[in-house]
Amino acid sequence: MDKHGSSSSADVEAPLLLPPPHPAAGDEPRRRRRPAAAVARALLAHHRSYLAVASGPAACAAVCALADLGADHADARNMLGVLAWVFLWWVTAAVPLAVASMAPLFLFPAFGVASADEVAKAYMGDVISLVLGSFILALAIEHYQIHRRLSLNITSLFCGDPVRPQLLLLGITGTTFFISMWIHNTACTVMMMPVATGILQRLPRSDDAGGHEVRQFSRAVVLGVVYASAIGGMATLTGTGVNIILVGMWSSYFPDQEPITFSSWMSFALPMALIVFVALWVVLCLMYCSGNTGKALSAYLDRSHLRREINLLGPMAFAEKMVLAVFGIMMATLLFIIPSGKNEGEKLMDWNKCRKLQWDIILLLGAGFAIANGFKSSGLTDILSEKLIFLKGAPTVVIVPVACIVSGIITEFTSDDSTTTLVLPLFAELAKSINVHPALLMVSGAIGAQLSYLLPTGSPSNVVGFSTGHITIKDLVVTGLPLKDQ
Asked: Which is it for the CA torsion 271, 460, 430, 120, positive or negative?
């Protein structure tokens, strides 16, 4: 500024914030139309997902408005509406499985079915802790690459010299079956599928000579891991979420009955699982192993080469031995206490290594227990008992297969855990109404729910196998039908 108070153009500073330019006369409508058009395009692009999300609350509103359960059963009607909401979100995958499984946490209190405290307790009981521990054990085995050592040893031990495809298939599926008895079948599939694909990486996926036999054997390996993990899980209470839900609901509905223990279930289920496993192996050998399969595989699976690779791995490190020891006693907590022996202060497992925990499965189990409690607290179980009284007098030899068939059909379209959560309360009340032992219907329903062999949607294990690219839905259907008819 000069002495006369006037300022030169060089001395004038630009304002820090310039006012927005005034739009021209024709620009304002265009500026308003653009966001609306973008929103419309986004809605059209994702209309299916939005419809799936809306289907849940819409079904709930329809049930609450139209279902007539009597003036004294408002809570039961609300429970039925909430169940429709959660079930549709599960089936349509409108939201992630974990999110849908947490819906009871806010829906039950909002609709007066149960308090928030009561619902929250269902998500972290002793059964949930058992599943969580099995997942952590599986992650530890994967973290220390024990599955790679396992794949090499299985292949070397069972491939034969010359290669015997049936024997190798028995080794892979038998190992999967045994491991799935002690950890959750989904965790077993996640752990064993890299073992299977590690073996298959040695095999070409081209159309060269013998390519058809190699591709068929690859299908058999992937299908064998998927089905063997499901079958092995049937044998023990820890092997699958279905059995865990069964135990929880049994103790909830029939506290005066003798509890289902680990030994009592295993004495019943292990022989059945072994029979189904043998049937699986026979089906895979007949459908996917021909007389030329061994010759086609012999060029890629050489026992001496496999043994050299095992030697290159060296002896088992301290961490690997400790992980296997902890796995043998099924105490995942020790993994966070025992040092790894690699770095100072490092433990076998820490929480950062648990980032891949399958929280969606854990929350799904919690939702199952919450829904079972909601059936009782809302009075819906009493209503179902009254409605099903017409089945009284039907022979048990008819009712039990029907229970297994009903759950076996439903489980193909939603997860086996979800199916169990939905049908077991129904079967519990049915047993009361027709005066049969509840174990007949509830155990039959639980077993039927585990026979999800035909579609990827039936089980997370099916999804894991399907994602490898070695199998198709047709492979699942063709192989699963004979097993499902056992």
From this structure: positive
